[in-house]
Amino acid sequence: MKVIGLMSGTSLDGIDAALLDISRARNKLRHKLIAFETYPFPENLREKLLDISEENETTALISHLNFFLGELFAQAALKIAARSKLAISKVDLIGSHGQTVWHSPSRISEGRYKIHSTFQIGDPSVIAVRTGVTTVGDFRPADVAAGGEGAPIAPYFHHALVRKEGKSRLIVNIGGISNVTYLPFSSKKEILAFDTGPGNMLIDGLAERLTFGRKKMDLNGAMAAKGRIHLPLLTELMSHSFIKKRPPKSTGRETFGQSLIEAILEQSVSYQISDEDLMATVTAYTSASIYSSCERFVLSRNEVDEIVIGGGGVRNRTLLALLRRAFYPVPVVQFENLGMDSKAVEAMAFALFAHDSFLGIPNNLPGVTGARESVVMGKICPGKNYRKLIGMSRRG
What is the pTM of this model? Predict the structure, then answer.
């Protein structure tokens, strides 16, 4: 099948689109990345998404953005097909993660029910209608319904495409939030994966605030490289309860978003920290929170042969240097060393999720998310090609 994967992460900077050729034969997965591109969000959309993610806006705006994002995801799918010189009618499936605007892994009592929830917008029905291609979206809720946290789910992709018998790997994915996946040297051993805390989220948020909106990120970690780490503030940040929490665990903008950025800015005034020192400290916090969680829950009890880093964070040279220093002497490489594009990995994952969801293959990892059972994640929105796909799956 030719499948498009669409991903918009907690960094809120745009839509990643990847077109893959995927097949399964005799339980062996084969894939080929045909094309990848990132399509930036329209101006002012990021601010609106931040508002609804921070509980500042109304249900009317949430409903509106749900359908608006559906249109943008559909356009991204059409563009990546056109870039590949492939007619959209030749695409078999689209898998869309949507945009997470709320993630609440902590259970809240409602009478006899204990509710935890996750919410992604960017309606897949819009994508299916605009493109004519059967679209699978809204993946996380099935895992939540089965008692899991609905995150992290990327380890399913890591396991399928990165695991190597005889070699233990630790995958570090740095998006808005950072998550890690431990792939043991033997398939008989269990995968371990969890969110570690902030990735690019605090760095990007502070860069925007400190430059009065002129910059959306600390490009290449240049600002942090000019500063010195403020140890008292770093120590305070590292005392955050999530860092020490045992897996399964997941988090999002609700914990490491605007409210924490405001608190950090207040502390910088109290400590009289310069902008460069503040950026250096928050970058160090991102690195230290990743390493601390890995040391506590993985490295202290497992052998690791190689660290593989992916996600948008690979573009931050200062952050990468800190991580290499922290994990030394374990070698740190990027997905490119495995023949993959670091920036494309997350979008590629949702192409695989859509493929396996349509074929009825369970695609969550209960040992990672805390779910009671394996489930098929994803809601299928039929496109014009739906009957053709059903025929293909029956023949397969």
Answer: 0.90
Query: Tokens standing for 81?
Result: 């097909």
- CB within 8 Å of 47: residues ≥ 6 apart: none
Q: Which residues pair with 99 in a beta bridge?
A: 8, 121
- How much is the pLDDT for 391? 80
Q: From CA 297, how far away is CA 337, in angstroms rounded?
A: 26
Report d(CA 359, CA 105) in Å as an integer.
Answer: 28
Residue 49 reports pLDDT greater than 70: yes
Give the type of residue at 47.
Answer: E
- Residue 278 is predicted with a pLDDT of 97
Q: What count of other Cβ atoms lies within 10 Å of the Cβ of residue 65?
A: 21
- Sequence letter at residue 316: N
Tell me the β-bridge partners of 136.
95, 380
Which H or E element spans position 192? strand 192-198
CA gap 298, 36 in Å, rounded: 32
Average pLDDT of span 254-275? 94
* Sequence letter at residue 341: D
pLDDT tens, residue by residue, 116-132: 899 999 999 999 999 99
For 320, residues 6+ apart whose C-beta sits below 8 A from its C-beta are: 221, 309, 313, 314, 332
H helices, E strands: number in the chain: 16, 12
- Average pLDDT of 291-314? 94
185-210 per-position pLDDT tens digit: 887 678 999 999 999 999 999 999 99
pLDDT band at 165 (very low <50, low <70, confident <90, very high): confident
Token readout for 329 is: 């002497």
Q: How far is CA 294 from CA 69, 196, 299, 329, in A?
A: 35, 8, 6, 14
Sheet holding 332-334, edge to edge: 192-198, 177-183, 169-174, 306-310, 332-334
Q: If you write DSSP's letter for every residue of 205-224 in order, what string do you get?
A: HHHHHHTTTS-SS-GGGHHH
